[in-house]
Amino acid sequence: MALSSLFILMQCHNLDYPDFYGSLYRALKPSVFHAKHRARFFRLLALCLSSTALPAYLICAFVKKLNRLALSAPPSGALYALALTRSLLEKNSECMALIQREKHCEDGFDPEESDPKKCGSLETSLWEIVALQEHYYPAVAALAKDFKNTKWGKHHGKHDHKDDSQLSLDDYAAYTYKQIFDQEAQRSERGKNAAVPLCFKEPSGIFVPGDALHDSFSLT
């Protein structure tokens, strides 16, 4: 990847490339979640954003765009977006306003803007995380709900989460549909002999009492 080589030159050989983060921002597209080398790209993205010296507007721009894309991304991509979001917010407390701001405020973010400085990332909130709390894949919903269940989201980086292992960015970067399928299959295998409650009260008929056909059919 060209951006990876550029980053090495900038980091190790002091190459001056002012538009590097702009190019990286523009590379964030829906197709990246389906790319063959997406794991490598995600690792590069996390590495490039790991510096605490980056301006707040830049971190907010990447976080906002990641979460916007997560709404339509596959479960593996949504998991990575949420994990990276938490990691970035923990390192950059000045960006906490994105999750502390009222979710019903007007969204000033422009997803079509290619310049992270002009996209309005400081004038928005991460309402996408609230939407992801209703995701069809339970792991995504659980990770999104973790943003409101932990103290760090309210007290600038101080959290009491008991299991940070679930936030391994490397694991999420390489997450695939096969892993998701295998996990769900194992869960189904473990619970296949468990009794499944179908109804809390045994029905006495097909129709409710008072219905014209109530006496015409019986379950006995």
From TrEMBL:
Q: Does the keyword Ribosomal protein apply?
A: no
The alphabetized list of GO BP terms reads: ribosome biogenesis
Keywords in alphabetical order: Membrane, Transmembrane, Transmembrane helix
| Pfam families recorded | CBF
Its cellular-component GO annotations read: Noc4p-Nop14p complex; small-subunit processome
Q: Which spans are transmembrane here?
A: 41-63
User: Is Ion transport a UniProt keyword of this protein?
Assistant: no
Q: Where is the CCAAT-binding factor domain?
A: 1-144
Family, according to the entry, reads as follows: Belongs to the CBF/MAK21 family.
What protein am I looking at? CCAAT-binding factor domain-containing protein
Species, as recorded: Octactis speculum
